[in-house]
Amino acid sequence: MVIIFISFVILCLNLYFWLHNKNNRILENNRILENNRILEKNYPEGVTRFNIDTNYKKFNPKLYKKISEKLSLPLHLMLFNISGDANIALSIRTAAVYGCSDVWIVGKKKFNKRALVGAHHYINIHKIDIVDAEFFIKHNLQPFVIEQNGVPIEEIKFKNHINSNNKACLIVGSEVEGVPLNLIKSLKNAQVVSISQYGMIKSLNVSIAASIAIYEYTKQLRG
Ligand SMILES: C[S@@+](CC[C@H](N)C(=O)[O-])C[C@H]1O[C@@H](n2cnc3c(N)ncnc32)[C@H](O)[C@@H]1O
């Protein structure tokens, strides 16, 4: 009786694991489709191909960082005291899509990387505590403060402020306080760039504002 019971339990367990594997794992050539994510066999450690543009999938994943460096523009993004994990991650994702080489995260040490979809592999991310006018001089960065009540973005000619010795740095501010006024005032050559608004709501979400500014910058630089 005991033997029959144990055999029945083993049979049930086998059936459970077989069904589980069948649903989640389909072998296809040398690829494994797992929960709709493609994992390449013999994949170099620490490198991911998820969300890679199809045009670049044919290259060795070890070259991805180099390729993205080649595709990048003279552009940095600074996230000033942003508190929301999603806002940080989504801004970095847009930055990686449009060829921003570096992102400076000011004030926040840790954030959830889920919404990055791997963007952190292809962009340089720096975490710093504070930033002042000296910082931009030291890194040859031309600051563009993305903030309300500045010059409409349509009127900004980004190219006129960039040369072979500097790069643009788009600065967006925290969800509550924005970019601090004392920082803006201390940046003598900074442009305050505003995205026109037409509705009732007071301001854009910070990652959306960063995305629009990055898009406009890259459109002007590449166009
Ligand atoms: C939610 S807003 C900050 C709060 C806003 N200063 C307020 O008083 O409600 C977060 C950040 O998004 C960016 N932002 C939002 N709307 C913007 C706009 N219309 N133009 C430029 N930047 C904007 C700015 O960088 C701003 O610091």
Quick structural summary:
The chain has six helices and nine strands; from the N terminus they run αβββαβαββαββαβα. The protein has helices at residues 2-24, 64-71, 85-98, 133-138, 181-186, 206-222, and strands at 25-28, 31-34, 37-40, 75-80, 102-106, 124-128, 141-152, 167-172, 191-194.
Commentary on this structure:
The chain is α/β, with parallel strands linked by helices and 223 residues long. It has 6 helices and 9 strands, in the order αβββαβαββαββαβα. The N and C termini lie far apart (79 Å).
Shape: elongated
Average pLDDT metric: 86
CATH class of the largest domain: Alpha Beta
Q: Which ligands occur here? A: S-adenosylmethionine
Number-wise, the strands total 9
Radius of gyration: 23 Å
CATH fold assignment of the largest domain: Alpha/beta knot
Helix content: 25-40%
The CATH architecture of the largest domain can be named as 3-Layer(aba) Sandwich
Low-confidence parts = 23-43
Estimated structural class = alpha/beta
Q: Proportion of β residues?
A: 15-25%
N-to-C CA distance: 79 Å
Succession of helices and strands = HEEEHEHEEHEEHEH
Taking the sheet with the most strands, its summary is: 6 strands, parallel
The domain count comes to 2
**Strands in their spatial order, largest beta sheet:** 6-5-4-8-7-9
What is the CATH homologous superfamily assignment of the largest domain? SPOUT methyltransferase, trefoil knot domain
